[in-house]
Amino acid sequence: MAASSPHLSQLVNPLVSVDQLASSGSQLDGVPSDLESSCIYAGAQLMQIAGILLRLPQDIIAQAIVIFSRFWIGSDGGSLREFGVKDVSLASIYLMVKLSAYPKAPRSVINVFGYLDSFHSTLGDLKGHVDTNNPESYYVSEGTYVAQRAQLTKMETIILKVLGFQTHVALPYNICINYLQALDVFVDHETASHLAKRAFAHLNSALLSPQLLYLTHQPPALATAAIYLSAKETGVKLPDAEWWEVFDTDREELGFLVVAMISMEDFVKEENVKWENRKAPSTLIEMENELERKATANGHH
Amino acid sequence: MASTPAATPAATPKTAIKPLDRTFHGSTSIGSYELEQKVGEGTFGEVYRAKSRKDGEVYALKRILMHNEKDGFPITALREIKLLKMLSHVNIIRLEEMAVEREKGTRKKATLYMVTPYMDHDLSGLLDNRDVHLQVPHVKSYMLQLLRGLKYLHNSHILHRDMKAANLLIDNKGILKIADFGLARHYDEDVPKPGQGGGEAKRDYTTLVVTRWYRPPELLLQLRRYTTAIDMWGAGCVFGEMFKKKPILTGKSDLNQAEIIFELVGSPNDNNMPGWHTLPGCDGVRAWDPQPGNLDKVFGQYGDDTVSLMRQLLKLDWRKRINAIDALKHPYFTNHPLPSRPEDIPWFASSHELDRRNGRDGRGPGQAPPPAPAGGTVGGGPNAEGWAGKGPPNGSSWEGNGRNSRQPPGSSHPPNRAYESRIPNEIRLPNETRVPKAGPDGRGAPPPPPRRQPWQTDAPPVRSASHLPPAPPEGSRHPLPPRPDPFIPRDPHSRDSSHAPRESSHPPRDTRPPRDRDPHRKPANLDSYVPSYSTGGRRDDRRDDRRDDCRSAEREDRYRPSSRDGRRGSRDEGRRRLNYDDVDNPRSRDDRSDTGGRDRPRDERPRDRDHRRSRTRSPARERTREREREKEHRDNRDVYRR
Ligand SMILES: Nc1ncnc2c1ncn2[C@@H]1O[C@H](COP(=O)(O)OP(=O)(O)OP(=O)(O)O)[C@@H](O)[C@H]1O
Ligand SMILES: [Mg+2]
């Protein structure tokens, strides 16, 4: 049982097993894997935006996204036909925020998600998507609120159970700064801060990766890859030696992560095209509709 | 995602990889435990002794009460589970798993239990057992184990923040384990280093921690940048308690707590507590009668090395207070008699802090001292003769005096019982609780509020006191004092203006001066785990209400002996309050600004009962089962799911 080896350093994450990656509740329930990826990506993206609107520090948003991503993986993970993406993302944010130094009322979180609901899409450029002059479109009535809060508290417990009550998430951001310092890149501040920003941007994007990088790799490897890639992009010269070895990352892993981080751009573009002007299903009903639509389009009926 | 090469997880060889652990998934059902009797009552609910049907072992099941359905899963439990899952040490209680109780056929929410190995005693209960006489080697052994646990905790960047005898569990093999991580938190500073005490902290933490009798002077004086040294102070108190068989510093108020501390170890000056005069002070009091301290007198009989270690642990200067690493090297542990090996400590009949309370059931206040606690008369066990028997053990007389109840330090005050038996000097009705009222001099006894839980923010209390078992009365030998009071006086009307001074128009509710007015109390980057929302409107009123309840709850249990959880309240209110009213966070500002006017429930009267109806899960159920079947079929090597 879990407790037989409970020791878990605060700097280390539990990672998903090969088995857990091989399948998921959603796939077992007949959700095509590309649709699954879209939904989870959209959910994570929604959380990122909601987190910003809630004025949360990025590390809390990141932890919430990791929790959210963990929820869906593995054959005993949550299924998209059992739980709506929106409910899970909302509850994940609420849960991690509760554990943080920036607690928010359920009402705040629900309001923000209600506001984002009024967008035609939460992907791509958000500006054109909302009619800010029409508060009616995102007003959360008392009745709706009460129902959603009930759903939220219920979902919170489900998430906890699915995750085996493991809410610890280690992140690569601090490590990234430490490594940059160790690599002596801060001598020249201009380029260094550019490099650091770039690296953080990659770490943030990687949160949304369909390859679930935060679930498959430890923070040091993520930080190392982000630094490697950003250094290449900004033309900062790093030591010739295999410096990543010092940071617990071997060449193979580094290579994999760098490629995965580079591929984010194309993935996001594709998603934006795929879901232009509409949203990936975020509720159970939307999911069923989407599955039906797909089935019809494929001429199964 | 499915396109991910599955080989990646294996690619980090240097860090121990733990698979995403879902062992708790679909957690063990409560059915695999045979519930026996209740052994403890905590903030979250009761602790039961239970036998596992799987392995026949005995476990303790702590029920997690869903206090506040509105806020969801209780934060203290969440935190405790999170921390316990990260810790692994012989002197720290181990979280085995979570057990789920689902009442069939009802829509009731599932109840969750934290499962830990059953421990026969908590130290408080043990010491209170008249038939138990610890000998020096046993005290040394417990102390050693406590310090080892603390060393591990502190080295893992964790502050316990609720050191006290009742939170130290002891099994029948003599092993001591630190329990109750409901107030613990991650410590952002450097870990203690040999010879350097607790070091210094760089950030602020909430001072609303630690049960009063175990609260160190720097916390009483409102130091926010405290360190691991706060736990060391508690260890010192526990050390003394093992000799005296009762808490050694039993202040009746925070101020009195400070006074009796200074009586014992001397009053603060620039030598023994540099920087003391720059601290906000205790209830506004910042000057203290000069006192030389009488530690020698009080503990001298137990030997010089005892006094020496005690002095190190009860050092006023938190920077110099000995850390666990160094305390373990203190000669006390290498001087004769040597610490016993845990397994050599005799077996005692099980005793828990709750026993004391239950043992006094039905008695009024101010009555004779309690009879031997429930477990007390059993005594015996393999080594019973000689020292679990009726008299002091052969050849150990050091503890003799303790029996005669020498008054604890600070004996200018009446012994506990005297104030326990005081009665309310004013009765207040429920609706009045929001109106701050203090005693005539601002320090007198506050009237007891109705017994409302802090989380009961509106509507009639869901769990009204009358549905609960009768209150254990006051008068037990040492009911614990409250945890600290996180009250933030606020003027609900100024809520919308972030510039308005928060509680300007309110006189302090408490008998204490409103510490919270002190700007020091609210820097922006404080720690808090707790949702304490200020969303405006009525809700705020209720929150104040809640706060008020908790504030006075500490008095209540002193002055109203018949209240349901008398002592329990006194021990727990602090935590409850902390749960919901932890002052250390920036959100009070945040929430007000971030979602603006929308973020204001105008009325939350409709209680969310209906969430229960959404628990029809049969289709999902079916799918789950299907899935499980398929999965088992496909792959039964799956480790994380056993
Ligand atoms: N594993 C255990 N074995 C035996 N008794 C236990 C165990 N865990 C807890 N208890 C008993 O239950 C009491 C309360 O447990 P604990 O301190 O963990 O709960 P809590 O809710 O944090 O309580 P409180 O707030 O009152 O300190 C303990 O003092 C102890 O007597
Ligand atoms: Mg406790």
TrEMBL record, chain A:
InterPro entries: Cyclin-like_sf (IPR036915), Cyclin/Ssn8 (IPR043198). Gene3D superfamilies: Cyclin-like. GO terms for molecular function: cyclin-dependent protein serine/threonine kinase regulator activity. One of its GO terms (biological process) is regulation of transcription by RNA polymerase II. This is Uncharacterized protein. It comes from Tothia fuscella.
Automatic annotation (TrEMBL), chain B:
This is Serine/threonine-protein kinase BUR1. Residues 394-414 have a biased composition (Polar residues). It is an enzyme of class 2 (transferase). SUPFAM superfamilies: Protein kinase-like (PK-like). InterPro entries: CDK (IPR050108), Kinase-like_dom_sf (IPR011009), Prot_kinase_dom (IPR000719), Protein_kinase_ATP_BS (IPR017441), Ser/Thr_kinase_AS (IPR008271). PROSITE patterns: PROTEIN_KINASE_ATP (PS00107), PROTEIN_KINASE_DOM (PS50011), PROTEIN_KINASE_ST (PS00108). It is found in: Nucleus. Belongs to the protein kinase superfamily. CMGC Ser/Thr protein kinase family. CDC2/CDKX subfamily. Residues 354-363, 419-435, 488-521, 537-611, 619-642 have a biased composition (Basic and acidic residues). Residues 33-333 form the Protein kinase domain. Residues 1-18 have a biased composition (Low complexity).
